[in-house]
Amino acid sequence: MTRETWATRIGFILAAVGSAVGLGNIWRFPWVAAENGGSAFLVVYLGIVLLVGVPGLLAEFVIGRRSNRSPAGALRSLSGSNVWGAWGLFYVFTAIALLSFYSVVGGWILRYLVESGLALAGSGPAYFADPGQYFGGVAAGFDAVGYHVLFLALTGIIVFAGVRRGIELGTKVMMPAVLVLLVALAAWAATQSGAAEAYAFYLRFDPSAIRQNFFGVLGPAAGQALFTLSLGAGTMVTYASYVGEDRSLAFDGTTIAVLNTLVGVLAGLVVFPLLFSLGISPGETGTGAGALFVGLAGAFSQLPGGTLIATAFFAVVTLAALSSSISMLEIPVAFLVDEYDLERRTAVAGVGALVVLTGSVCALDQSIFGFVAGTLVDVLLTAGLTAFLVFVGWVMGRDALDEFRSGAGEVATALSTPWLFAAGALLPVFLVFTLLTTFGMDARLGFWPTAATAAALAVVIFAGVRGEPEAA
Ligand code: TRP
Known about the structure:
Layout: H1 9-20, H2 23-35, H3 39-67, H4 71-79, H5 82-87, H6 89-118, H7 131-138, H8 142-160, H9 163-190, H10 195-203, H11 207-212, H12 214-228, H13 235-240, H14 249-277, H15 282-285, H16 289-302, H17 306-340, H18 344-364, H19 366-396, H20 398-405, H21 410-438, H22 441-445, H23 447-467
Helix pairs in contact: 1-9, 1-14, 1-17, 2-12, 2-14, 3-4, 3-12, 3-14, 3-19, 3-20, 3-21, 6-8, 6-17, 6-18, 6-19, 8-9, 8-17, 8-18, 9-14, 9-17, 10-14, 14-16, 16-17, 17-18, 18-19, 19-21, 19-23, 20-21, 21-23
The structure holds tryptophan.
Residues 19-20, 22-25, 98, 227-228, 230, 232-233, 235, 324, 327-328, 381 line the site of tryptophan.
């Protein structure tokens, strides 16, 4: 059976942007930015996206396009080692963990979209009366399970339809819709009374927040950069494995990162004026789920035409979430199709059934949900990307350079050697460092001991990888 490829040039970019643009942009980004120094944070964040995110993205692209396989098969076939092949199972696990919590949040959003849409004709949706109490009632429990399964079913239908007729066609419709609706919402939000105050809060240039606590900002910025660019789970390996023609991966990767950042900034231009127009202080709603479902839902309830605005807003978030969740499901599905020759529909049904269960656990138990959505995913993504980078630098080496240069323009070609050096040496040290920070090492021992440990650990990993028998 021949493997599918994207039908068009833009199809690959839109699918990858669709994966990147999601809850991370709309729900998390504006708050992380506002809390960490506004537009000063944006500068640091952009730096990290360009210096860590884009090189990481390119590492995943290079592995995927070179091998035409999803992560497990890619690592095995490019290295000739079964150890790497077994490590590939790690990405299947990560994808299932991601999808388990993401689908629950997707379910909440879908519920709000359905409720808002149904209320367009009548009086306001049910959550208008008391947003806080309403959200508390539906966030966990069997209500949450139902909508999780519904959201997962939508995800499954698109993935089932295939790379071209499902993912590519779906994201070609969804991404332009997201952009148009977001711009319209931002324009409308600009006319609200609190807009000026909101921009002052969101975009204020406050370098002192960063100077005081640079390493405190670096961690959140790096975590956000990985999550929002869909790095570390093998999504981008898988999507790049469907790239047939020669094109500049570096150009595509940069385009994707820029579009993704734009959507994050835009989302803040929608969210903050809404809150400020009603005098809701962003601090009051917290940064998590509450901000979206309690703070914003409360704002909609008090605005003239609020039901319509709410419907448009939750439509944006639903589409953004769906175009991301399909990229998570595609990882285990591609694995089963590539490695075990399963029919796509059997693979979708099997993985779907599993995630119905694992997602339901997250929907029923809030502490498990919190653990999966927080620490677990953070650690899995950081470790996952580190392994890809080490693979590119220490196993592929020259092959990675060839693949990077193929189709690349002059600028990208000139940057290819620095890229390989960063990917193989600097970035793994940086990521191991952030992992140690996640476990609280720098808080206990201080910066330099942590940095030294990170460097030492990285060297041990490099040496271990070099010691692996060479590919046949
Ligand atoms: N990037 C998406 C977001 O911002 C989430 C996402 C999709 C993701 N696929 C991923 C995160 C793979 C990590 C890995 O919402």
